[in-house]
Request: fold
Amino acid sequence: MSSYSSLVKTSGVARIIAAQLTARFPFGMLSLAFLLHIERIHHTYGAAGLVLGAMCVGQAIAGPLTSRLMGVWGMRPVLWMTLGGCSVAVACIGWFVMPIPMTMAVAFFAGLSMPPIQPAVRTIYPKMVNSRQLTALFSLDASAQEIIWIAGPVAITFVSTQIGTVEGILMSVAVMVAGGLWFILSPEVGRVRIPRSARKLGAVLRRPPVLLATVVGFLLVGSCAAIEVGVVATFGKNGPTAGIVLAIWSLGSLVGGLAFGHIPIGPWALARRMFIILVGVALAMISLNFWWLAGTLIIAGVGIAPALTVVFSIVSASVRFSDTAEAYGWVGTGQLIGAALGSALAGFLIDGSGPIGAFWVAGTFAVVGFLVPLLGHRWHPDLRHGDASPMPDTEPVQVQRS
Reply:
């Protein structure tokens, strides 16, 4: 824990972590908010899954594009533009009753304009700490982001079930705007300039570690998205129970990230962490009882933040600084495609087989998610030396003072 305390004391680290967590807090609310809202209006989880899938596909397309644009136009202009477009689109879904195809189109635009907070902050981190602190910072970030998934689901299910689903969506918009403003106006965002990449869009995926991280992220988040839909289908109409189960799940991830974040990252690290997730998901399929799901999802959660720490670290160590934002954009795209596919498949299986169908989807994603890093461990960088910083560019990187 001493490594985490020293990180927090580093100038600007605590502020930028808090700002980006607030800006990303709606990510822990929007999926459930849309799921509950669309199901209430159209009375089908399949339709809700399609809307979520449309939003995730929009995010997936935008990920590498908006991340790369930050190297052309700068971070702040891209963040301002996307924050405005996304907040208006999300508000429209809550405020207006539309047919499913129209709702999907608006959700797609919301995803397309989702502010690229995660690629931005993960590009800033290497410029705030030394190389040996970077893996610990990624671990702290991956653990701290579980606050989003602990408080977010509880807050949105309470507001949506006790007050109204429209109010839940509008609350998400308010948090998005407030957090986005805090992050964009943070001094660190103005100080770091991402160099313009000389490579073609997508060239970074030729690096095996980036491709490995992207595929594993797709499978990990696909499993998580299916579980989220399954939990909501099981408990969604019984007050805040679904949010409590999801919060317990995220609490396991928070504990796992803080407990195992300091462990050196060797070639088998990602496979080991994905195996923990697989065990928890497999056990969860046995029963949909509240206490059984809470206990088994804690087991699954213990592997999530440590797995994400490995994903972020191997990407950072495998690319040049000018390519980091785009690389994280592709990783985010993989995760969002997984979320879209996991949500959509879970929604349709719930309509046909009940909530257990969502856990069948989650289990399938988890099995493949373990096998890919197991078989692809030779692509996994050995970071046991502790240095996960990006490779330097051939020209100096400008640092601006805001």
